[in-house]
Specification:
9-stranded antiparallel beta sheet; mainly beta; 8-stranded antiparallel beta sheet; about 0% helix; 1 helix
């Protein structure tokens, strides 16, 4: 789905052309209708306290959410970042961790390797996550480049995930349904909504049929989520970027469907942000329903927000509001006590293991021969270029809102002449602090003016705005970012020679908030060559902290 910052309906296809017991995803048990007594969790525990929106102040958009037993899972868009399609996990719908990724590598063409082309604003868009009880398997389904649909499966959310099949029909903004009889259906499309039936093994398409045409008075509908609830079929659809609608059929998955508006121009929970939309419905084991949507909140991205849902007597969902708006706070869901605390999305990483933690994603696919972990993260130069947007093995981390700071301890003693390494605020307008080594001399610099146009071609490779001398082979780099939406926000850069006292370097960097890049700003670790390969840096510590 394509968000529209001015909140006018506009599909992603049009935007890109112009620029260039179970849950959601499965048949659900009976729901309590309006007037029924509030449900409590199966264990008898009651909700205690409140939660605050956004429930995740990091960039996770186009959410699909499911429940398997007492555990909730969600998937999100990642565009050109690799691995793609993160799988989030929660035990209470409020506190989330990243369990893994459904798409281990973006093997959809050389452009995703930064080889002769670039995949910016392509790759993993709105996709679907489902669980099939009959074979105890998770399914991820998504289309790539309007060309084909890919299905990946795993028996555990953290993986390993593997590709099950490729389907020739491009299921745009798809929602996968595992019906009560174990049949697999897919709802998909933009304005014209279709339903496909898959073969029992999920590998091929059996049939596809148009089931709904969006009235011109509504405009664009996309972002399908497909459900079966109380014998009725529902397709949950977004009107980008300011509305949510739902279709209902009592005649089967192929319709006929009738439509109802769920929300339109609803005030959201993030000041300066957009209307909550394009997410999924999920039911707790105790029978309570929730809607996990996202809020456009650039420059940081699109942030998940949670609201309770009730149902009318004739089976239509109603989002529960607070003073006519999506609430900033609500009572916490009534769920059993979690088996453990989830892994925080902030904190310290010393890269001691043999693999990267799932909170990390590369800018395009990495060259896996040029990096390693264990006793820190070693980044060997993988590309000779003066353009960071072409440099392979740039490792990214989402920024925590509303403000946060990334601090990196960097060993640069193995850099070679022409190498550039450091810490960036990365998007279609970028800046960084780091090291330049030229003529046997290493200098600390702050660089701004890295820019792309709306076709994602580089228009600026950067201008050095400040510098300082460097001695020794170790330094601490810091980037701070204010990603609150609304007024222009800034990023700042600083450095330290002892890890304690930090000195600002360079001017404030104004973060861009154009929605068309879709992904929000990220912290990025990079090391690339401008002359020849062979150099390396080692990141011995990364810390993401909030005030």
């Amino acid at each position: 789905m394509v968000p529209s910052w001015p909140h006018r309906p506009l599909s992603r296809r049009r935007a890109l052309t112009a620029a260039t017991g179970l849950a959601a995803g499965a048949a659900l048990p009976a729901l309590p209708l309006a007037g029924a007594a509030p449900a409590t969790a199966a264990s008898g525990t009651a909700a205690s306290g409140t939660y605050t929106n956004p429930v995740i102040w990091q960039d996770f958009a186009d959410i699909d959410v499911i429940r398997v037993g007492d555990t909730y899972y969600a998937s999100a868009s990642t565009m050109h970042y690799s691995p793609g399609a993160p799988v989030l996990r929660s035990y209470d719908l409020v506190n989330w961790e990243i369990a893994g990724h459904s798409v281990p590598v973006l093997d959809f063409g050389a452009k995703y390797d930064l080889n002769g082309g670039r995949g910016y604003v392509r790759g993993i868009w709105a996709s679907s996550l489902a669980y099939r009880p009959s074979n105890r398997t998770f399914y991820w389904l998504g289309q790539i480049d309007f060309a084909k649909t890919y299905v990946y499966t795993a028996t555990a959310a953290e993986g390993p995930w593997s590709r099950l099949t490729t389907i020739g029909t491009a299921y745009y903004d798809a929602g996968l349904l595992v019906d009560t009889d174990d049949t697999l259906y897919v709802a998909y499309g933009n304005t014209t909504i279709n339903v496909a039936q898959l073969s029992p093994d999920g590998r091929t398409q059996v049939r596809t049929q148009q089931v709904f045409t969006t009235p011109s008075s509504v405009g664009t509908l996309e972002g399908s989520r497909f459900y079966k609830i109380n014998g009725q079929y529902y397709i949950f659809l977004t009107r980008p970027a300011n509305g949510q609608y739902i279709l209902k059929s009592s005649g089967g998955p192929f319709g006929p469907y009738t439509m109802r508006q769920v929300l339109l121009d609803l005030r959201g929970p993030i000041p300066g942000g957009g209307v909550p939309h394009q997410g999924g419905l999920v039911q707790t084991r105790g029978g309570a329903w929730y809607y996990l949507a996202f809020v456009d909140a650039y420059p940081g991205g699109r942030m998940p927000a949670l609201a309770p849902v009730t149902w009318t007597a004739d089976g239509w969902p109603v989002v529960q509001l607070v003073n006519g708006a999506w609430g900033t706070t609500y009572p916490s869901p009534a769920v059993p006590a979690p088996p453990r605390q989830v892994t925080p999305m902030t904190g310290v990483d010393t890269f001691d293991g043999t693999t990267l933690a799932p909170r990390w994603e590369w800018n395009h696919n990495p060259d896996n021969t040029k990096w390693s972990t264990g006793n820190g993260l070693t980044l060997r130069t993988a590309t000779v270029t003066n353009d960071l947007y072409w440099a392979r093995n740039t490792l990214t981390h989402r920024i925590q809102g509303p403000t946060s700071t990334a601090t990196v301890q960097l060993d640069h003693s193995a850099m070679r002449d022409g190498d550039r390494a450091g810490l960036a605020l990365l998007r279609d307008s970028s800046a960084w602090i780091g090291l330049k080594r030229d003529g046997g001399v290493t200098r600390l610099v702050m660089v701004g003016g890295l820019t792309m146009d709306t076709n994602w071609n580089t228009t600026g490779t950067g201008t050095e705005l400040a510098s300082a001398p460097v001695s020794g082979g170790r330094i601490w780099l810091r980037a701070g970012a204010d990603i609150r939406p609304g007024a222009p926000r800034t990023g700042t850069f600083s450095y330290s020679t002892d890890g304690t006292t930090f000195t600002r370097l360079g001017p404030d960097f104004t973060l861009g908030n154009d929605w068309r890049f879709f992904m929000g700003y990220r912290f990025a670790l990079f090391n690339h060559a401008t002359q020849a390969l062979g150099g390396a840096v080692r990141v011995t510590r990364f810390e993401l902290s909030t005030p």
